[in-house]
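Case study.
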Amino acid sequence: MTIKEVSEKYDLTNDTLRYYEKVGLIGPVKKNKSGIRDYTEEDLKRIEFVKCMRSAGLSIEVLKEYIDLFAEGKETEKARKELLKRERENLRKKIEKMQEAYERLNYKIDVFYKDK
Amino acid sequence: MTIKEVSEKYDLTNDTLRYYEKVGLIGPVKKNKSGIRDYTEEDLKRIEFVKCMRSAGLSIEVLKEYIDLFAEGKETEKARKELLKRERENLRKKIEKMQEAYERLNYKIDVFYKDK
DNA sequence: ATATAACTTAGAGTTAACTTTAAGTCAATA
DNA sequence: TATTGACTTAAAGTTAACTCTAAGTTATAT
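After joint prediction, the assembly is written out as follows.
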């Protein structure tokens, strides 16, 4: 799959896809004889995972850390699990804060601006 | 209340408090004869609101927009309500994405890394 | 054969939201 | 009176995550 197709499929720009590759979140993606990227199914799965986590606010640094651990093999499974648990907890807290703000917006809209 | 007390109460640095004031999210805060800030109850309420919304990811630009509308008076109530509804919807979508990522982390932790 | 469009790279530029720095004022304490 | 520590300002610096630019190559359509 070409970079264009991938960028359309996942709604990420070509630049972002190459940037993710450069910082080591994906790939290195295979290239054909004329140097053009050809994404595999594996690559797509990784992109989808990264996109999901990024859209939830996990930093590139953390994702890179996880992916590097993964590349190191089985002996890092415990460390990976710890990392995921840590990020899950961060996420939980963030969701909580957002829900607080959400309730507050609800209140303002429904009570303060009721008749506007 | 001094800037130090406020910064401790809300866990924001002095710098951030002055920055928020500079960009117009709060104040202008009253100063005593020697130029030192003395925050009022009104100021604190605003700070608390801004902190809550910032921690949920609303941009300074949007908050500024809302606060400027507020300062313009009653005739902007409808516009303010629209703004809040827009931001509430953005927030809802973001919470949804974060929950998706959260579930995914849960799954990885509980299934993939079950015995690690 | 040539123009067009999609791809490539390295590296510079952008944006938001702080954060730090430098230089200075002021009040309380040794 | 001198020093300490908290405050002040304007402006420069930082960081993350892209995003754009410039210069070049390649494949396809006319």
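Observations recorded in class. The mean pLDDT of chain A is 96. Chain A is about 70% helix and 0% strand. We will return to this complex in the next lecture.
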